[in-house]
Structures are given as C-alpha cells and as structure tokens.
Specification:
The protein is mainly α. It is built from 5 helices and no strands. The chain starts with a helix and ends with a helix.
Length: 136
Amino acid sequence: MRQSLSEGRTALLAVGLSLVLAVVAIVDQSGGRSLFDHAASVYAPYGKTITSGTVYGVVYAVAVVNALIWLAVVAVARRPRPVVIGVAVLAVLLTLGAGLTLLFVTEYGVHPFPPLWGVLALLPVLAGAVVLLRRR
C-alpha cells in the first residue's frame, strides 16, 4: 500500500511537470513570444507564414496529452505490479516520444522549436523513471 501511494505521488509529479510546459508556454505567449518569433524566423526565408495559435497549440497539445498519460498512471497506481509497470512503461515511452519530437523535429533543415521546449517536454520522463525504478 505504501509503495502504491508513493508511486501515485511520483506520477502526480510527472503530471505537474507535464503542466510546467503549458505554464511556460502561457507565460511566453502572453509576454515575450520568443517561441513564436523563433518559429516565424525559421519559416520566413521559405515564404511561409505561421500563426501563433499553431505554434503554441502544438506545445499545449503535448503538455495536455502528457498530463493525461500520467494521470492514467496515477489511476492504476494501486493495481497489481504488472499493470502499473506496463502503464508506466507506456507512459514513459509516449512522453519520451513527444519530448524527443519537440527536441529534434526539423522542417526545411531547421528546428522550429528551440531546445528548451523539448527539454521541458522531457521532464515528466524523469519522474516516470523514478516510478519504474521503485517498482523494480
């Protein structure tokens, strides 16, 4: 029982870390808009225009999907060990995929998202690794 409560808290930490991405995006969108400025400068030489809704929408989507994935881990934290391990592994892989996509995606040979956004999207993976390591 104590183990499952600890894993549930750790998974809640991953939910919180997923939402950090959204909070940073909200702050950036309402303030400096550095993400949009970067993306616009990436696409400008190719005659492409991009809206801030598109750029920030991708970031918000990653943050919300990651949070929902980790909420699924919270929901199964008191289940038998194989279930928790399976869901946590799936959560780590999906979160890792989303973070690496933001980190390494390229279009026209350049990265439309600065590395900071990929790193922020990868933060929940750290908490997920703790869940898996505690379930050894």
